[in-house]
Amino acid sequence: MLVFMDTETYEQIELPADLLGERRPFLQDGMTIVVEFYDEEALNATLPQKVTCKVVETEPVVKGQTAANSFKPAILDNGVKVMVPPFIAQDEDIVVNTETMDYSERA
């Protein structure tokens, strides 16, 4: 279960973690999300489209590798694996699109 707070009434709401599905690792403290309800039942939760994450592990840059159409795997601080351009190094912050779960830009 995850605990959310209504920013208008400060009421706390407990919702099942599977409501977010595969986007759950991108949930961060203090993040504003939109939860859709029908009567008293939560139907969907929407995260912001872009989230900033830190790269904790990636391969070093290979000399001669160009940025065009070449990507390397990276593991983020939330455990998600994404493909990033070769110029992204370990401990850098990047922006990830939560809808496609792909690298968007450098933070």
Give structural attributes.
107 residues, mainly beta, OB fold (Dihydrolipoamide Acetyltransferase, E2P), 2 domains, 5-stranded antiparallel beta sheet, two-stranded antiparallel sheet, 0% helix
CATH architecture heading of the largest domain: Beta Barrel
Regarding CATH, which class of the largest domain?
A: Mainly Beta
Over all CA atoms, what is the radius of gyration? Answer: 17 Å
In CATH terms, the superfamily of the largest domain is: Nucleic acid-binding proteins
Portion in strands: 35-45%
Protein architecture, described:
- This protein has 107 residues and is mostly beta strands.
- It has 2 domains: 2-46, no CATH class; 50-106, Beta Barrel (OB fold (Dihydrolipoamide Acetyltransferase, E2P)).
- It has strands spanning 2-5, 12-15, 34-38, 41-46, 50-58, 72-76, 81-84, 93-97, 102-106.
- The chain has a 5-stranded antiparallel β-sheet with strand order 7-6-5-8-9, with no helix packed on it. Strands 1-2 form a two-stranded antiparallel ribbon. The chain has a two-stranded antiparallel ribbon with strand order 3-4.
- The model has no long low-confidence stretch (mean pLDDT 83).
